Structures are given as structure tokens and as C-alpha cells.
Amino acid sequence: MGFFYLLLLLVVAAIVGGLGARLAGQDNLGCLGSIAVGFIGALIGSYLSRLMAIPDLIYLPTRRGPDFPLIWSIVGAALFVALLGLLRRR
Q1: Which of the 8 DSSP states describes residue 24?
Q2: DSSP classification of residue 67
Q3: Torsion over CA of 22, 83, 60 and 63, rounded to 10 degrees?
Q4: Which region, left, alpha or beta, applies to residue 25 given φ > 0 means left and ψ of -120 to 50 means alpha?
Q5: Angle between the 70-89 and 3-23 helix axes, to the nearest 10 degrees?
């Protein structure tokens, strides 16, 4: 994987994580938090879409490994941030 492609994945993960956090009502994650939430959201969203047999709508193709599902990443990131918010309130 090239440097610029890795940089592109980090930028996309930050955007996806930021959108997911904004949908969940949290907007104070910062850049690294948004990147982490974006990648975790991609894992959760991909798992849920496979579990429910729903195809990826829009994805970022990768050369090696699985594609980066954009829509399901946003959904997964929003679910993950909402779960973190619920755990933090306890």
C-alpha cells in the first residue's frame, strides 16, 4: 500500500468518524478520535451489513484486503459513538 493511499484512508476515516460522531450528537472527538471511530465504524458497519445481507452502497476500493464501505462506516461510527456515550453516562 502506498503512502498516498494510506493518507487517503486516514482522511476518509476521519471524515466518516466525524460524520458518525455528529449523527450521534458528539462533536468533540478531535482528529485522532475521528480516525479511530471511522475505522471502528467501518468494522461494525461491515459486520452488520454482512449479518443482515445488505450490500455495500458506496465503498472505497482497496488494492489488498476488503473494500472500505463508506455508508456502513458512517452508520457503524454513529452506533459506536452512541454506545460510548451511553457507557460514559453511567
Answers
A1: T
A2: -
A3: 140
A4: left
A5: 50
How many other C-beta atoms are found inside a 10 Å radius of the C-beta of residue 49?
Answer: 18
The span from the CA of 28 to the CA of 49, in Å, is: 27
Q: What pLDDT does residue 65 have?
A: 65
Q: What is the domain count for the chain?
A: 1
Residue 21 domain boundaries:
3-89
Q: What global pTM score does this model have?
A: 0.78
Look up residue 60 and give its three cell numbers. Answer: 472505497
Q: Are 68 and 62 in contact (CB under 8 A)?
A: yes
How many C-beta neighbours within 10 Å does residue 24 have? 18
pLDDT digit string (tens) for 15-49? 888 888 888 888 778 888 888 888 888 888 888 88
Give the H/E segment covering residue 43: helix 30-51
C-alpha–C-alpha distance, residues 9 and 3, integer Å = 10
